[in-house]
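Hey, quick one: can you model this chain's 3D structure?
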Amino acid sequence: MPSLRVWRRKLFKTAARLAPGLGLRLWLLRHCGYTIGHHVYIGEDLIICEELEDFTEKLVIGDRVAIAPRVTLVTASDPNWSRLAAIFPPVRGRIVIRQDAWLGVGVSVMPNVTIGDGAVVGAGSVVTQDVPPWTVVAGVPARVVRTLSDKRS
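Sure thing. Here's the predicted structure for all 153 residues.
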């Protein structure tokens, strides 16, 4: 039977998906054990696919990150009880979204991906590889379409 900690995480994740305000959404996600920086925007209906019992740091979101509605972050995936499990081993990994990144509506990010500082991921993209800093990526799978200049100065 799942532990109280697992039930709490599941409940908080579900509540965060539909939370009416950003402050409440961030509070709930932080209390699930995710690392979330300052001045972060996370839109409604964020889906985090993970192994609920794994409490290691699997999701890190840096400062000033903007995540549009209906984004999916996948840190764990497997075919479950299908006979395909003999062919496809479980995939487990970490997602790191560095500071000042922006993920458009409906983006999916797969395990073991880092999205660099100031990177932009176009709406509907599927990110399967690391995204370099200060680039724009788009498509399925996401590919670099433009390089940005570092606007911090």
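One thing worth noting: The radius of gyration is 16 Å.
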